[in-house]
Amino acid sequence: RLVREFVAQNNTSQIKHVIQILSQEFALSQHPHSRKGGLIGLAACSIALGKDSGLYLKELIEPVLTCFNDADSRLRYYACEALYNIVKVARGSVLPHFNVLFDGLSKLAADPDPNVKSGSELLDRLLKDIVTESNQFDLVSFIPLLRERIYSNNQYARQFIISWILVLESVPDINLLDYLPEILDGLFQILGDNSKEIRKMCEVALGEFLKEIKKNPPSVKFAEMANILVIHCQASDDLIQLTAMCWMREFIQLAGRVMLPYSSGILTAVLPCLSYDDRKKNIKEVANVCNQSLMKLVIPEDDDVDEAKQPVPMPAESASEEALSKAEAVSGGESLPAWAIRGTSGCCHSLFLAALSFLCSSERIPVTLNLDGIVQVLDCHLHDTSIGMMTRIAVLKWLYHLYIKTPRKMFRHTDSLFPILLRTLSDESDEVILKDLEVLAEIASSPAGQTEGPGPSEGTEARPSQVELHVPVRGSQLSSSGNKGMECSPSTPTMNSYFYKFMINLLKRFSSERKLLETRGAFIIRQLCLLLNAENIFHSMADILLREEDLKFASTMVHTLNTILLTSSELFQLRNQLKDLKTQESRNLFCCLYRSWCHNPVTTVSLCFLTQNYKHAYDLIQKFGDLEVTVDFLTEVDKLVQLIECPIFTYLRLQLLDVKNNPYLIKALYGLLMLLPQSSAFQLLSHRLQCVPNPELMQTAEGPKPSAGSKRSVATSIDYTELLQHFEKVQSKHLEARHQRAGRGEQLERRVVL
After folding, report:
1. Closest to 670 measured CA to CA, from 617, 626, 604
2. Vacuolar protein 14 C-terminal Fig4-binding domain spans which residues (predicted)?
3. Contact residues for 598 (Cβ-Cβ < 8 A; gap 6+)
4. What CATH number is associated with residue 98?
């Protein structure tokens, strides 16, 4: 009644005096009953003031909010009731004081007393109604408080925060999406709450935000939220990880190349998910889409030598968006390294620059591919032996794709990547080895790897001048490599400085890991013959083995190469090239192979059979009498006899019909027969030779056929005498080496006896 009288008299000073007395002497009194009376009095003042209460809100609200912290729950309830009456009267006038009201309510939301909590919920609903119906809400000043309180660990406080976010998101005049980078990290943390209800509410809120992002991508600050998503894509909680991964998928597809600066962080989060089992199938599938979409963003223009920044294409727009309402968003920040990403705090948004947006702009925002960071992440994953097979395959696909799209920049990293790529050849998975070989083949064949002299390598010997490798002519220029797809075959093989280095290191790996040679050697070489030029591979390996100091390994390796040459369908063309020796290149290849094949006598004979050098094969077999005949030697002769019965040597068996012109072929086969003991191979070859017809029965009325010598006249440039001397020299070295090994074995046996 008193306040109404003062209002009627327009006596503001007396009104303020009454409010001051109620505040200082009652609401803030030490006596609890006085505080209750003061709170009731302040509420009564507000009711009496009516629409004029907005002039005194600061004086009315502050003492009530102070009582929110009172130890007496009844007092807190009275304070809540008083503030409800004040707000109900003032309505929209309380919005300038919204932050202090929100701060007080957020504390009451976690109050242990159910009555206080119930009262705060009534006040909360009233305040939400006021905000919803008003167009004067100051979102800018509210966001810092929301960002601070969103990191609360109290379940009720979290529920209170999420409810307000949902309300603000539903108001058309309030654009909360502009401030999403400020609260996104906190939302993902709330998503991991133990309460199912809170998790569901948070999931709904994030879903609504994602819908808004899809509707209006030009206004979204993708760059500012990229690393926030990277952090939560690595979360241990499945729901957080799946949600963050879904957001990442949409960001990559909507923002496009804006996401490129954050590629290393994205790959750090995505690659491990590709090896998840069926228990995390959903996360694995979304991660796979993220990986593929990110890979497509790398284009040939990223390989510009001058490191010029490339324009960012427009973000994708929804179907409902008009074509003229285009915009672009980008961050000038670089992606964080893995150690920084894992250690980022909740307020990680402060690490990024603000995104720039343009409407109807014809300009493009420059973006640079952070290739160094990407390669570092890929290299770390290859070195990590604990990662799954699908992750290793994805890493190798990335490396292959980068060598195709950005070969110049990638070759700066080749020396550091080369060792781990070679080690990956020992992987248990055939799929991993195939992808690894594709990468190595691209390195060995790309024109971007062309430098003067051999490629850099520790301990790599210089390439000898006498080795002439065939270089297929390449019609397309280097830039054409950018037109290749992610999964296309390597380019037409050419020789570069890394090819010979690759061959040397591959043979070294076979030498140090004999099990790899036994189990995967043939598989690796056959695949390389498909990916690269088979003639170059055999030519270079033969040349390297010619100077191999480990003679036992050289013999084993030659035997492996010979078996591949004679039996693999991938080498059909090379076999045909060697069969006739019609060209100078084929004769040079034969001589190169022959010199290395001399490490293994039986393979040398089989090479002569393949190239139809039957007289020389016979001469070699005559020398076998001077060699040490071991069980291994006889086993190889046995295998050669089996090979003669295979389709590969069909032409050789048919030549047995022409006895007159192929006498040395028959002599060579009889020579092999005489070497063999009475075994199944002996019986097989003996039966074959029994089928050789009588020369007199094979005579016809036709003129005489050309002699064997005239038939092979094209190969007269080959000095077979010199080749035979080389064979004897190599075999004497092998004999000496065997004696040395035997001597060391005897010495060791004596030591054991002693």
Report:
1. 617
2. 514-692
3. 604, 726, 727, 730, 731
4. 1.25.10.10
Domain contains 145: no
Would you say residue 382 has pLDDT above 50?
A: yes
Q: How many CB atoms lie within 10 A of CB 31?
A: 10
Identify the domain boundary among 425, 447, 469.
447
Q: Round to whole Å and give the CA distance between 301 and 40.
A: 73
Q: How many other CB atoms are there within 10 angstroms of residue 58's CB atom?
A: 10
Q: What is the residue whose two structure tokens read 């060579």?
A: 668
- E strands, 256-337, are 310-311
d(CA 478, CA 494): 12
* Average confidence (pLDDT) over 131-145: 92
Average pLDDT of the chain to the nearest whole number: 83
pLDDT at 748: 55
Domain boundary among 426, 447, 468: 447
**pLDDT band per the 50, 70, 90 thresholds, residue 581:** confident
| Beta-carbon contacts of residue 412 (< 8 Å; ≥ 6 apart) | none
The CATH number assigned to the domain holding 426 equals 1.25.10
Report yes or no on 124 lying in a domain: yes
Assess if residue 333 is contained within a domain: no
Cα–Cα dist 353/531, whole Å:
45
Calpha distance 451→460 (Å, rounded): 15
Question: pTM of the predicted model, to two decimals?
Answer: 0.80
Q: Which domain holds residue 409?
A: 369-447
